[in-house]
Specification:
- This protein is mainly α.
- It folds into two domains: 206 residues, MFS general substrate transporter like domains (Growth Hormone, Chain: A), CATH 1.20.1250.20; 192 residues, MFS general substrate transporter like domains (Growth Hormone, Chain: A).
- Helix content is 82%, strand content 0%.
- The longest helix has 37 residues.
- The radius of gyration is 21 Å and the shape is globular.
């Protein structure tokens, strides 16, 4: 351990710890952009539609599709120009998308509004790389903590996003919602100011050795731990998207009111990000596999609570467990993925991971409303268990292989 590492904590250099904290703050504002887009996307879509309201949530799906489409371009750009320049480029796209979405609401154009949220989602794919940027520097012991620090920014996002909506929703009255989408640009500017302060490796373009070379992606993707990490990340995130999207519909459908639906989502978001710092410590102490397994168990418990009844306590309890399960499953899977690539391979592997993960999230969000309408809330939750069984089986295989390798 170097003298700097000795004075800053286990495995964390000064630059690594400072950048992780900066990325955590930036994540609060970038996450606020996502909260505004998802929470108002359906309402604004409904406002813009004259007839078929079944398409109202299409802009939200467009946001998720934008995230999936942007993952590989974001990774490739950062491989060429570096993390800091890439993140600033992504924030610039958010400003552009917010302006388009706000203007579309003023102009009454549903199609243009959906395209605006697609652009905002594309920018969010850059923000999804914050956790990898924090994990790229420092020792392996610091990586899980760095990822957790970044995700704790989601706690602040759970406040910044709704408060932005409250203060700007009627800013351009009598036309609702437009002000909130213009406010996305303001949040992106704040994020840019924070990201411009990144130092060390995050500020500089990667060395030439990191821009070329490395193993073939097909070779990396054949590693058992790579497969397990991506499978569990896809499973935890897609299940979270599937149930979170349908839950407000179910709450309102059971006559419990829109306010209770909104409060349920607020508790869910807080549960998603609240335990993040503790999760990193648990991973450092007990390992990735046990933490991911706990996450899958919490997701199963979420489905069980949801199936047990349609009282408000069931809905809120299920949403809280859903957030906790996502936190353990996704952070553990991300930490596991960082073990499977070399420095010169990181951007390509991280881009593929996010493309697969957020592609599954987009598919889940597209399917959620339709499944709820056709099979109902109870049967929708039954779909959780086969996914969890596959993930747990993969984790068991990974654990056995790791023990054999250590022996």
């Amino acid at each position: 351990m170097t003298p700097v590492e000795a004075t800053t904590g286990v495995g964390g250099t000064w630059h690594a710890r400072r950048n992780a904290l900066l990325l955590s703050v930036a994540a609060a504002f970038s996450g606020g952009i996502s909260v505004v887009s998802v929470s108002l996307g359906g309402l604004a879509g409904s406002y813009l539609l004259d007839a078929d309201k079944s398409l109202a949530t299409l802009p939200v799906s467009g946001f998720n599709i934008g995230v999936a489409l942007g993952t590989i371009p974001a990774a490739l750009l950062m491989r060429r120009v570096g993390r800091r320049a890439g993140f600033l480029s992504g924030a610039s796209v958010a400003i552009f998308g917010g302006l388009i979405a706000g203007y579309a609401v003023l102009a009454g154009s549903f199609v243009l509004f959906a395209l605006g949220l697609l652009a905002v989602g594309f920018s969010a794919s850059f923000a999804q790389q914050y956790r990898f940027a924090a994990a790229d520097v420092g020792s392996p012991a610091f990586r899980a903590r760095a990822i957790s620090w970044v995700l704790t920014g989601g706690i602040a996002a759970a406040v910044i996003g709704p408060q932005t909506v409250i203060f700007t929703r009627n800013l351009l009255s009598p036309i609702p919602f437009a002000g909130s989408f213009f406010a996305i640009g303001v949040l992106a500017v704040v994020a840019m100011a924070i990201l411009s302060q990144l130092t060390g490796e995050a500020r500089e373009p990667p060395p030439q050795t990191e821009q070329t070379g490395g193993r073939r992606l097909s070779e990396i993707a054949r590693q058992p731990r790579f497969i397990v990490a991506i499978l569990c990340a896809m499973g935890s995130y897609a299940l979270m998207s599937l149930l979170m999207t349908a839950a407000p519909l179910a709450i309102v459908g059971c006559g419990l009111g829109q306010n209770n639906a909104a409060l349920g989502i607020q508790w869910h978001v807080l549960a998603m990000f609240g335990p993040s710092y503790i999760t990193g410590n648990l991973i450092a102490r007990y390992g990735k596999e046990p933490v991911i397994a706990i996450g899958m168990g919490l997701l199963a418990l979420c489905a069980g609570v949801a199936i047990a009844g349609v009282n408000l306590a069931n809905f809120w309890g299920a949403l809280i467990l859903l957030g906790l399960g996502w936190n353990f499953g996704f952070i553990g899977s991300t930490a596991m993925l960082t073990e499977t690539y070399r420095p010169e391979e990181k951007n390509t592997v991280q881009g593929l991971n996010d493309f697969l993960v957020f592609g599954s999230v987009a598919l889940a969000s597209l399917s959620s409303g339709r499944l709820y309408a056709t099979v109902g809330w109870e049967r929708l939750n039954l779909y959780v268990f086969p996914v969890i069984a596959v993930c747990l089986a993969a984790l068991l295989v990974a654990f056995v292989l790791r023990r054999r390798g250590d022996a």
